Amino acid sequence: MKRALILMTVLGLTLSGCGKTNLNPLQWFGKARKGAQVEVYVAPVDPRGLMDKVTAMDIEPVRSGVLVRATGLPPTQGFWDAALVQLPNDGSGTLVLEFRVFPPTTPAAEGTKPSRQITAVASITNFNLDGITSIEVKGAQNAMRAQP
């Protein structure tokens, strides 16, 4: 046992003198190097605009968290690809979702209110609800808030 300990100590001291090689145990786990660059992930900007008006909001509890359902009213028909996009948590206890939607690709008729309504749903996990006291869905002209 003593022999193995002495051998490991001698081997460790010998290899640590090897400088910047893979044999040096001090280099095995890496460390921050002076001037090292750090990659930062920047989320892409959502190209969709905000829904004109949020007309209804509902929060439905499910086993994994809640489903947030919002209905919006755009100014004309033809709006598409609606989604509730979560904004970064600011620590206020309110989870903010923006109601985002693409405008029509060609000019569209106004139509009736029921024909223009768009509904989007977002799933929020119990983990993401930790510390959240209210959920807000934001549109261009208004916002609606409810408790989960």
Can you tell me about this structure?
The protein is an alpha+beta fold. The protein folds into 2 domains: 1-40, no CATH class; 49-146. The protein contains 3 helices and 8 strands, in the order αβββββαβαββ. Strands 1, 4, 5, 7 and 8 form a 5-stranded mixed beta sheet that branches. A 3-stranded antiparallel beta sheet has the order 2-3-6. β7 and β8 form a beta hairpin. The chain starts with a helix and ends with a strand.
Question: Would you summarize the structure shown here?
Answer:
The protein has 148 residues and is α+β, with helices and mostly antiparallel strands. It has helices at 2-16, 113-116, 126-129, and strands at residues 49-50, 53-62, 65-73, 80-86, 94-102, 118-125, 134-138, 143-146. β7 (134-138) and β8 form a beta hairpin.
In N-to-C order, the SSE pattern is HEEEEEHEHEE
Unreliable stretches (pLDDT < 50, length at least 5) are: none
Summing up helix and strand content along with how strands pair, one would put the structural category as alpha+beta
Can you give the helix content as a percent range? 10-25%
For the report, how would you describe the main beta sheet? 5 strands, mixed
Q: How would you describe the shape?
A: elongated
Number of helices: 3
How many structural domains? Answer: 2
Total strands: the figure is 8
Oligomer: single chain
Question: Mean pLDDT, nearest integer?
Answer: 84
Question: Percent of residues in beta strands?
Answer: 35-45%
Gyration radius, to the nearest Å? 28 Å
Distance between the termini: 62 Å
